[in-house]
Amino acid sequence: MKVDGLEPRPDFWRVRPDEIIALCESATKCSRKEVICHTPLGYPVYALFYGDFSEPPPQTNWSAGGSSTTYRNYTARPAGGPQTFLFIAGIHGAEPETVAGAVNLIKELETGEDFLGRRHDELAKLISQYRFIVVPCVNMDGRAISPDHLRGIDWNRFRHVSQGTWKDGSRVGWRGSKAWFPLPLDRVSYPGGYPNSEGYNIMHDAAPGDIRTAEARALLQLAARWRVDALLNGHSYEYAPSILPLSSIDYPEKLARSRAIRYRCNMAMHRAGLTAFQPVPPEKDRPGRPGINLNNVLSLASGAMALTLECSVSYDKPEKPPRVHPTRKYTFEELMEPVFITLREYLADGLEAPFIVRGDEKIHQD
After folding, report:
1. 181 close to 196: Cβ distance less than 8 angstroms
2. Collapsing DSSP states into helix, strand and coil, what is residue 92?
3. For a designed S-S bond to 94, which of 119, 146, 207, 314 qualifies (C-beta 3.0 to 4.6 A apart)?
4. If DSSP codes are grouped into helix, strand and coil, which group holds residue 366?
5. How far, in Å, are 146, 208, 230, 297 from residue 305 at the CA level?
6. Helices within the chain (DSSP H only)
7. CB-CB contact of 71 with 302 (8 Å)
8. How far, CA to CA in Å, does 38 sit from each of 88, 196, 334, 335?
9. How does pLDDT run across 19-67, given as a tens digit for each residue?
């Protein structure tokens, strides 16, 4: 979709499907790379692996393994061994900020510098202490039809570009888009970059026994196969950047930990000047709404901690001011900076205490 008035993107903002594919195909420092699926339009969805991923498939799944005599029946990680971290971006194709962050992160891991020529030595060192998987863009179909960025556009156009437009010209809307699964494509003049080309919102392809998209199935298989311990799911919205609250439907032991990590990451973004509001401290934080989404089923696939990062689309003067919105227009560098800040804090936290206890201890006796 063409949006009039958008400024030219800088060279480091490489978010087109062909640019993402070319970067993944050229990667040589990763220990393995896979096309985990193809989208309905035929785009490859790449996963790049950094670290040792040489072990055979698990002998059981997380559900059965958690009910056996030891977690070792599922996980191959020895006590104290590296945890597995999954970073996924671009589930909503109209939201390019975390895609730009993921692309620049891959460039850093491959060459030592991102496309801006910057080094992220602290983050690279943290990643080296994990088994790290990055999926730079899940919804390549939505990315293909979306603008390279939406920096500075108004709230109304953001909704049209993201969730689409009905044939009468009205917005489908954020909540309205979730009233349909899939979106009835014969009733829209533009589907938005939120869903894939079949009209499915991949983030909500999460009904057990009824997973409909190749993209969601591939992510679930990826998490289960490689025993993912924690994941970051990258999105964008019209507020200041933030880690969202964990769903109230999650493992109880993860709720307190996730609130602490959320506060840590949000405070880091606040200190960096990306948010004007004071983050909610863990003791006052509450889980989000009780509905389920892809994060929940990814957690169920491997036991992983799952958090969502929302970057900002950076409004100047939104037509409908959000509850918490940017007080200035972010630079392109700042639009993707929450990716680097969040990964640094999230990964550091996991080295202080494991995200999941997966040791050799007995958990059940026959």
Report:
1. no
2. coil
3. 146
4. coil
5. 30, 19, 4, 11
6. 17-26, 62-65, 97-111, 121-127, 140-145, 155-163, 174-177, 214-225, 252-271, 294-302, 332-352
7. no
8. 16, 12, 31, 28
9. 999 999 999 999 999 999 999 999 999 999 999 999 899 999 998 887 7
Structure confidence at residue 320 (pLDDT):
57
Calpha distance 289→287 (Å, rounded)? 7
Measured between alpha carbons, how far is residue 194 from residues 19, 116, 172, 178, 182 in Å? 20, 28, 11, 11, 11
Q: Rounded to whole angstroms, how far apart are CA atoms 42 and 140?
A: 9
3-state DSSP call for residue 158? helix
Give the Cα separation of 18 and 7 in Å (integer): 21
* CB neighbour list of residue 329: distance below 8 Å, 6 or more residues apart: 151, 152, 314, 315, 316
What is the rounded distance in angstroms from the CA atom of residue 20 to the CA atom of residue 18?
A: 5
Q: Does domain 17-352 have CATH number 3.40.50.150?
A: no
Amino acid at 78: P
Single pTM value for the model: 0.95
What pLDDT digit, counting tens, does each position of 282-317 carry?
A: 888 876 667 789 999 999 999 999 999 999 988 765
Q: Are strands 44-50 and 84-89 parallel, antiparallel or unpaired?
A: unpaired
Our measurement of the distance from residue 203's CA atom to the centroid of its chain's CA atoms, rounded to an integer in Å, reads 10
